[in-house]
Amino acid sequence: MVGLGFIARLSAAALLFTSSLASPIAKRAAATPSLSGDAIVIGGGTYPRANFLQDGTIIGTYSATDGDTKNIVVVQSTDGGNSWTQVGTVASADKNTRDLDNPYPIQLPSGRILVAMRNHDKTLNSDGSSTYTFYRITVCYSDDNGATWSYLSTPASDPANGVNGSWEPFFRIANDGSTLQLYYSRENSAIDQDSLMRTSTDGGATWTSATVISGGDTDNTRDGMLGVTQVSGDNLIAVFESIPSGSTFSVYSVTSSDDGSTWGNRQTVYAAPSGFNAQAPQVTNVGGTLVVSFQTDEDLSGQNQKNEAAKIVTSTDGGSSWGNKLTFSPAVSNWAGLLTIDDTSLFGLADHSGSKAQKITLA
Asked: Entry's InterPro entries (predicted)?
């Protein structure tokens, strides 16, 4: 376990879930989703993400608060997601001075497990509010299937001086089987945020400089909450939320035909009715059907981003068109992730009075 002292030293020195598929996938003829069974409790926290390990175990992460302590919690399921057990804690810190959240787990080909997370410094003001003083994305590792954790690297770090934060890291292993891709959102100002990627060829110990996935050529938008999956071969799709100045949140996509080296073809995936929001998306590939999740307040009588439901839409043409909308977790549901189970099913993961997993089947 990485405790308070370790996290403090990181500060001084200075984490779907969506699984990426390793081979081309044929298109499906149909993609009508339906719920299967009741939601399964993962744990008591928020921002659940999960991925399969090499032995078929599912590893999951979420953030949880215990009094004044914020924890990044690790859970596992050995029965295909039907039950979950806590196995470790990646990091812990005083919630008044540290902001630990957005954990994302992945297993490397070596067997080592990594978790990336946002890991920000802040100060507590006299009125009870907080002021951020430093932003970073931190990566920790485990060599015992998630029981104990150690610090590995800090791919992104910025003082709170003209930058408003780095958020929502997302891991993917490239098609070469070894290069690790780290996607995240960098908030440049209150009205401008970009989607970025860095890569590592040494298991996450060192990282390249950041390249822009979306937002860099679009002024005054807030591209964020990035998720990525393989469409087929070297063809990838990334989804993200964005809010043009004076508007509301919608879900957009960009694509890559070279396994993430370059990106373009910005399109709308889902826009809620006028005046409402669709945000915090993720994406996965289920046997050739693309599935995108998001949270939305569109069913309410008025806009309320604190009372949103989690929904999905599907695409059978590589992301050119989307439909078959389904609510998989009712309001209030936040920070949904996705995990492909097999060619016809997936889990929708969301915080609905705690982290839960809802099985969804496609027909």
From this structure: Sialidase, Sialidase_sf
Q: Which residues pair with 211 in a beta bridge?
A: 197
Single-letter amino acid code for the residue at 307: N
Sort strands 309-315 and 289-296 into parallel, antiparallel or unpaired: antiparallel
Give the rounded distance of the alpha carbon of 319 from its chain centre: 19
Whole-angstrom distance, CA of residue 203 vs CA of residue 257: 24
First-last CA distance in the chain: 42
Q: How far apart are CA 156 and CA 208, in angstroms?
A: 10
Question: What residue spans define the domains of the chain?
Answer: 33-362
Backbone angles phi and psi of 343, in degrees to 5:
-70, -10
pLDDT digits (tens, 9 = 90+) for 48-98: 999 999 999 999 999 999 999 999 999 999 999 999 999 999 999 999 999
pLDDT in tens, 193-212: 999 999 999 999 999 999 99
Q: Cα-flanking dihedrals φ and ψ of residue 21, to 5°? A: -100, 145
pTM: 0.92
